[in-house]
Write a structure and sequence with these properties.
The protein is of the alpha+beta class. The protein folds into two domains: 148 residues, Regulatory protein AraC (Jelly Rolls, Sandwich); 121 residues, Arc Repressor Mutant, subunit A (Orthogonal Bundle), CATH 1.10.10. Helices cover 40% and strands 23% of the residues. The strands form four sheets. The protein has a five-stranded antiparallel sheet, covered by helices on one side.
Length: 290
């Protein structure tokens, strides 16, 4: 990826974001969309726009496309035309704000990213900023600033994790996390990365420590775990959002991975470590739509 819109990725852009001072908030609230129309185009002339999504959809920024899923976040600079494509009723948290004029220190932040295990804290800061915006604007500014700085930390950590990886493996990891609700096969992912399935399998075992199929299933279940413990989405909706078309299969896979049912994970304190799942390593090339 390159900065300021000159992206070499077809689905991602990176912005230089000035974080030297707290943002000045114009509005923090909940947005409801997707009922009157399926596509909306936006451009805020002098405001940054931050969204935390609770639904599946697509974000288009010029020629770049991002597939959105629950737990994803987007950041759009002022004066940037972007389009949101909805699939039915869609609800998200949003913040519109001013940042100081460009200058050091700045952070390189992507146009969109999966919050992953950081989702509970990101959502907590977002909700806190929203609650405080009307009565304690200084606290809302501090919360939103903390959220943006946390994104900087997350992005830097992700860059370190993939810097020494083979480009094909890094590309597959990025694609998997962005498309957990879709069918995937080793053959498809290898074609996407520009190498043979056998080469991808060998690289993946060496650099990630598990098979491609096992990694996809583990990422699906990890995303489900985050959504169960940090949102109110129904269990069936969570299952579908991470690629399980059958609730019974999802329940069995979740219990096998974490030693408890999804409902127990939602209503209790989930501290169990994932169990080894070597049985998945013997599956064929198709990552199932369960």
């Amino acid at each position: 990826m390159a900065e300021n819109g000159e992206s070499t990725e077809s689905t991602m852009t990176v912005w230089r974001v000035p974080l030297g001072r707290p943002p000045d908030i114009a509005r923090v609230d909940i947005g409801h969309h997707g009922t009157a129309c399926t596509v909306e185009e936006w451009c805020l002339d002098d405001l940054w726009s931050l969204h935390l999504y609770g639904y599946h959809g697509r974000l288009a920024i010029g020629p770049h496309r991002v597939t959105l899923a629950p737990g994803w976040l987007s950041l759009i600079p002022p004066g940037t035309v972007h389009r949101l494509h909805y699939v039915g009723p869609s609800v998200h948290l949003f913040a519109h704000f001013h940042l100081p004029a460009a200058g050091p220190p700045t952070a390189a932040l992507p146009s969109a990213l999966d919050c992953g295990t950081e989702l509970p804290r990101i959502r907590e800061l977002f909700e806190s900023a929203r609650a405080a915006s009307g009565t304690a604007p200084h606290r809302a500014r501090a919360d939103l600033w903390s959220l943006l700085c946390r994104l900087e930390t997350m992005t830097a950590a992700a860059d370190r994790d993939t810097r020494d990886m083979h480009p094909a493996v890094a590309a597959v990891l990025d694609h998997v996390d962005a498309h957990l609700d879709e069918r995937m096969s080793v053959t498809f992912l290898a074609r996407l990365a520009g190498i043979s399935p056998n080469h991808l399998t060998r690289l993946f075992r060496t650099q990630v420590g598990e098979t491609v199929v096992a990694h996809v299933r583990h990422r699906r279940l990890a995303r489900a775990r985050t959504l169960l413990t940090s949102t109110g989405m129904p269990v069936k909706t969570v299952a579908h959002s991470v690629g399980f078309g059958d609730l019974q299969t999802f329940n069995k896979a979740f219990r096998r991975r974490y030693g408890m049912s999804p409902r127990r994970a939602r209503h209790g304190t989930m501290t169990a470590e994932p169990r080894p799942d070597d049985r998945m390593n013997g599956m064929n090339g198709m990552v199932p739509w369960d």
